[in-house]
């Protein structure tokens, strides 16, 4: 491979802001695996956000990108899996598997798509120092008429349209809007774009915690919601605390600490089979590897208000949530899924403009 921009390249990043800024290019924020794709004739390589190769996990995309991208180019985009008109991040994570036979089986069962939103190089020219507005014009020219599973990401400079996207696209599994200055050159691994994400609040049960890697202070709080059967389901964690607060939390939660998990709603957490029918902390995962997943059980009596941006398949928080305050006025039993906002369903095909 001999391109003007060579792998590995860490993609350009975004920093969070509270509202959509004016006078920029706006795109949907895709919920998938960020990837920079390098194509030099028959050679295709997919690099992850960290620069590590993703190529072997998406053989169906390698072939599609070889057929649909310009002969020699470098593009930035997002690998996604769409099911029933909606992005499915859980199905996407299953694609990262060490067994080649399983990778190829999943390539047939849950094929991925690639959404392109930037152009870093074309033929013999590096475009890293070219303004975004010019890169976008070239990208639209080169991908005019491109067919699935490769898509050109919709973009607009109309802030009112971006506001509509922010409200509507969440129902298709997207989680916000990205704003990019029109004069922006491509700056790998720098937070020079802006992301605007949905933020909501929910009351949750604090049912345990994990210790911080530095010592006997709280690393993360384990959070739960009751389902319609009255079972407490593990829905995520809150982990962003100053070190002083981590120590304070240990003291605050000490009266609720249990000697062991016997009698706790998540007592079966160490049983791999139990995870098939309930959401429990410590689920076996190829992402966790040999990481210590043990936790300190608490009597599920403390309620907290947390801020979250997105629910994954309506059953768990997609990202780490932010602790806002304790809610002594709320009972644990009132912390149910029913309190959560349900985004209006929106067909992904209407965003990408063709069936997926």
Can you tell me about this structure?
With 356 residues, this protein is α+β, with helices and mostly antiparallel strands. The chain has seven helices and 20 strands. The protein has two domains: 13-198, 2-Layer Sandwich (D-amino Acid Aminotransferase, Chain A, domain 1); 200-339, OB fold (Dihydrolipoamide Acetyltransferase, E2P) (Beta Barrel). The strands form five sheets. Strands 3, 4, 5, 8, 9 and 10 form a six-stranded mixed beta sheet that branches. A five-stranded mixed beta sheet has the order 1-13-12-2-11, covered by helices on one side. The two termini are 30 Å apart. Residues 105-227 form the ATP-dependent DNA ligase family profile domain.
Write the layout of secondary structure elements.
Blueprint: E1 13-16, E2 25-28, E3 33-40, E4 43-48, H1 59-68, E5 72-80, E6 82-83, E7 86-87, H2 89-93, H3 100-109, E8 113-122, E9 125-126, H4 132-142, E10 150-152, E11 155-156, H5 159-168, E12 177-180, E13 191-196, E14 200-212, E15 215-226, E16 232-238, H6 243-253, E17 296-308, E18 311-312, E19 316-317, E20 322-326, H7 348-352
Parallel strand pairs: 1-13, 8-10
Antiparallel strand pairs: 2-11, 2-12, 3-4, 3-5, 5-8, 6-7, 8-9, 12-13, 14-15, 14-17, 15-16, 17-20, 18-19
Can you give the mean pLDDT? 91
Structural Rg: 22 Å
Strand content: 25-35%
Helix percentage: 10-25%
Low-confidence stretches: none
Provide the CATH architecture of the largest domain: 2-Layer Sandwich
CATH class categorisation of the largest domain: Alpha Beta
Keywords: Ligase
Organism: Streptomyces caeni
GO molecular function, one term: DNA ligase (ATP) activity
Catalytic activity: ATP + (deoxyribonucleotide)n-3'-hydroxyl + 5'-phospho-(deoxyribonucleotide)m = (deoxyribonucleotide)n+m + AMP + diphosphate
């Amino acid at each position: 491979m001999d391109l003007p921009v060579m792998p590995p390249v860490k993609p350009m990043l975004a920093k969070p802001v509270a509202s959509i800024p004016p006078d920029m290019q706006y795109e949907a924020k895709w919920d998938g695996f960020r990837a920079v794709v390098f194509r030099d004739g028959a050679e295709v390589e997919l690099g992850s956000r960290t620069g590590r190769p993703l190529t072997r996990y998406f053989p169906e995309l390698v072939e599609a990108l070889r057929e649909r991208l310009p002969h020699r180019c470098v593009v930035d985009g997002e690998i996604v899996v769409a099911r029933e008109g909606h992005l499915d991040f859980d199905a996407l994570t299953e694609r990262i598997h060490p067994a080649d036979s399983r990778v190829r089986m999943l390539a047939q069962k849950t094929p991925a798509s690639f959404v392109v939103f930037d152009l870093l190089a074309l033929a013999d020219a590096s475009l890293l120092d070219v303004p975004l507005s010019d890169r976008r014009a070239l990208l639209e020219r080169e991908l005019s008429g491109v067919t699935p599973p490769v898509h050109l990401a919709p973009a607009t400079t109309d802030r009112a349209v971006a506001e509509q996207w922010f409200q509507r696209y969440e129902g298709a599994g997207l989680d916000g809007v990205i704003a990019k200055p029109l004069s922006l050159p491509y700056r790998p691994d720098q937070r020079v774009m802006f992301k605007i994400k949905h933020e909501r609040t929910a009351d949750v049960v604090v049912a345990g915690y994990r210790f911080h890697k530095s010592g006997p202070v709280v690393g993360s709080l384990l959070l739960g919601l009751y389902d319609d059967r009255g079972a407490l389901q593990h829905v995520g964690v809150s982990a962003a605390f100053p070190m002083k607060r981590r120590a304070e939390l240990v003291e605050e939660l000490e009266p609720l600490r249990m000697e062991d998990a016997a009698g706790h709603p998540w007592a079966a957490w160490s049983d791999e089979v139990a995870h098939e029918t309930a959401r429990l902390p410590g689920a076996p995962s190829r992402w966790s590897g040999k990481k210590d997943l043990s936790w300190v059980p608490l009597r599920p009596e403390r309620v907290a208000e947390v801020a979250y941006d997105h629910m994954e398949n309506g059953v768990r928080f997609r990202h780490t949530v932010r602790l806002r305050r304790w809610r002594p006025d709320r009972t644990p039993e009132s912390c149910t899924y029913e309190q959560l906002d349900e985004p209006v369903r929106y067909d992904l095909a209407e965003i990408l403009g063709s069936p997926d």
